[in-house]
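Final report, closing paragraph on structural work. Over the funding period we assembled a curated collection of sequence-structure pairs, and we close with a single example.
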Amino acid sequence: MNYLFYGFLGYWALSLTFFVYPFKKKNNFRYSKYQKYKQRKAILHISHRGGCRENLENTMQAFQHAYDLGTDCLEMDLCMTKDKKIVVLHDSSLLRMCGVDAHVKEYNYKDLPKFLERVRLDFAPNDYISTQTCKTPYLPLFEDVLKTFPDVLINVEIKTPEPEVVQAVNELIIKYQRQDTIIWGARFQKQNELLKSINPQIPRFFTVEGILRVYLLYMTGLLPFFDIPDDSMQAPLYTDDFYQWKLQVAQTNSEKIQQMLFHNFIRFLGFISKPLFYHLHNRGIFVYYWVLNNEKEYERAIKTGCHGIMTDCPTVLKEYLIKKKLYGKQ
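Its predicted structure, as stored:
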């Protein structure tokens, strides 16, 4: 019995030592411009879909507005059209944005339908944004984004990560020499492995599977002994708006109960995350939360020790970071 006790004690002592002083480090973020964020001297300002509560999401106008504000990172999603163009669009379906029950891959780029007059916002119950004030009311090409904003970090999720799509995205990244200023990823771990096989030099964000794996290893003390295959954790912070939106779109009582349980589970992970983020920081891994839109939510995130915050409200986040002296471009 004593051997078991001392073995258990030795395991946790070793785990704690390597947790505080990790030996499995990585550093795929080579762009020197972002070293101050790794040193925790500022919070990375990330504009979700360009800031979709201030401008129509994933449009050149939204990206330009966020860029002019001084955002550090533009977040966006990519799909491929029938004629092999890589366009910026969150939903592979055109229903929410255009009112057409079809997928973007069914259209040539020049034939894509126009936006609806009002587009429903994600992560917000009963909220819409008008498209009438958008000066660029079309789905932009990813290539145009790369050309227009050459000196800003770009976080891209490939919504349809078939090999042909990933290869086309990779060719554009290489063409514009953006390997050091792109973070990319997909929904599932096997898809992220495809991205890695096509270009291992581009940093990848964690999938949901990857996040759950890291938390499981963390809570069992095993994390210091395992490799972490990806480079940046985008952690969901279940905000009140997000929770209400999920309840609203739930179609059955069972789905609503699942959302209640998941809501509390995510909040629990937030309470235990600060030591984990410290460990990930020491292993060269970026951590940022999505999607936060007010000062109360920003405060919650910063207390966990994250590197960055993704927001639909880039103006609000900028003002908050300036007030807290955490804005990277002061």
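The CA atoms of residues 7 and 140 lie 59 Å apart. Strands lie at 44-48, 73-80, 86-88, 118-120, 128-130, 153-158, 182-185, 232-236, 286-290, 308-311. We thank the funder for supporting this effort.
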